[in-house]
Amino acid sequence: TVFARRLLFVVGKGGVxxxxxxxSLAIAAAxxxxxxxxxxxxxxxxxxxxxxxxxxxxxxRPIAPGVKTQSLTPLECLDDFGKQKLRVGALVRVLFxxxxxxxxxxxxxxxxxxxxxxxxxxxxxxxxxxDPQYDLIIIDAPATGHGLTLLQAAGSMGxxxxxxxxxxxxxxxxxxxxxxxxxxxxxxxxPDELPVNESMELLQGLDDRREQVVATVVxxxxxxxxxxAPPWDEVAAALDSAGATALRQAxxxxxxxxxxxxxxxxxxxxxxxxxxxxxxxxxxxRRIEPxxxxxxxxxxxxxxxxEGLDAWGAA
Length: 315
Fold this sequence. Notes:
Order of helices and strands: EHEHEEHHHHEHHEHEHHEH
Largest sheet: 8 strands, mixed
Oligomer: single chain
Radius of gyration: 23 Å
């Protein structure tokens, strides 16, 4: 199943709702009895803001029963690496918190990614006594381009440095991230032509990691079913000429939107198995107007994902 892995990276273009899907997946997994962590990278605070927790925090904080969140930064992860792997303790600040070292870190491509991936690897495979014990870690990955480089960072770093502790750490990270039994990818898209096309391009860019795609979540699917028409005398009595024009325009817009959404979903159903070479769950998450979306909506969205997974399994 989707939740049978240690790590799930939620990937997709910017603006498709990766954070919402990551939280929904976490709550769904927790409802199945797992201890789940939702991790944000690069000091992002979307989860904290969604749950009115104030500022971001590297330390884990609960957001739902069985679910905690953490917001990582490269420097905080490097501090952890120094304390746990290098055993330098209080010297961390002297070694890592200076301008020369920071300039070096900023200058090496992919090093920021590797430091954060190292913390994820530690949480998944060898958590420290003070770390939370997670059954599943869900990573709200950066948008498309950076998300791809994040997945490739450890392998590239291992090849670049050759040997030493950083190389060993990079190899361990790469082994975890490239193992389809331990690491899965969840693709997020929207029910419209452009996001679906961009998602298919992202799938192509995954190359040999495509086997790790365990599900696609279509976020913000609208309920565009049209109700049965009321008796005409009631409609005629309620309409004047201006009302009839406005109603016709609204109906035409609704039908056009319905057609675009149906076409996008049909294309996704057709293209996804063709690119992956196998069937893959496509889960729908209903649209909630942005100004209405809050923490109280997320358990309902999680339930929709569970229903979709159950239906997929039954089929």
